[in-house]
Amino acid sequence: MRVTSAILRQSGLPTPYAQSHPLSIETIELAPPGPDEVLIKIMAAGVCHSDLSGINGNRPRPLPVALGHEASATVEEVGANVTGLKRGDHVVMSFLPVCGVCSSCSVGRASLCEPGHAANARGTLLSGQRRFSCDGLPLNHHSGVSAFSEYSVVSKYSVVKITDAISLTHAALFGCAVMTGVGMIVNTCSVRPGQSVAIVGLGGVGLSALLGAVAACASRIVAIDMLPEKLKLAKSLGATDTFLASAPNVAEEIRAATGGGTDYAVEMAGVPRAFELAFAITRRGGLTASAGLARPDALFQVPPVALVTEERSIRGSYMGSCVPSRDIPRFIDLFLSGKLPVDKLLSSTGPLSEINEAFDKLDRGEIIRHVIEMNR
Fold it and tell me: Where are the beta strands (DSSP E) in 208-261?
């Protein structure tokens, strides 16, 4: 079938993207689903910094690629060996296909699924196949999803069936921002009621972590960012303290305000100095965790003696340490019960034709989450 999709053919084009057009809207070919695969109709797709890192070249991807990884959809057709899904089902996509049987999956660490990571690095589906093509030449898949397309073929291991009680526009956010941010708090850090959390970087993932900290009943939630308007939003969402990251002595101010630092400090900005700030504001015996995707060549510095004398811990968090089939539905249940107001993270919506303009706004920090609605 022929479908419309946003294709990235060259990384590193200059901003503004509204002029350089790194994403071209093209009509391409999509092959039918093979065994263990599903044809989906994309309904909504979030514009995320992980996509931006491919556009600006910070994290190279196999090109050309049908971009996009945060999406909600409806099922159109299922391939052989697919059970539990039927046409019309509402689904959210996991940006990592989870095989369920590798050594990582078998011990409950789905976010480390070895075949899933290998397929994403190749730009293929879990089967090793590519279902997109243009003029007879294959196009790569992005994270097994390729969300900025009218239709996509995905592995059944990328699909999480959800209730139709939530709008598909809001549901899209659970495929990355919410899964990663809330998962960081409840899975990676296991925050308990009464503990304190600091969040460095208030994009969609960072603010999702803030919502997760509120839901986990953290007693002190410190929000840190470069932009005052994001601090104001964080305060409205439940932050108890806010600090401008560019302040000269911000680490000292935070430690003073929190009596020596917070139990957990999580970094969501993807730059070394943000992680170093998070480490500096973690109390003795505390955990510093990062979900920020920095450049592959980026390095951070911490004093090793602090790991010993202060019994400090450092941990990475990919996909919020989630099991998507378990966590996406339960996070949606929290939203529907009013305990996780994810809708407040939605800055704007728009059509696929305005996707380059949306990435300009994301690059300038003007939006938290913009969602492409495919039916517009």
Answer: 220-225, 241-244
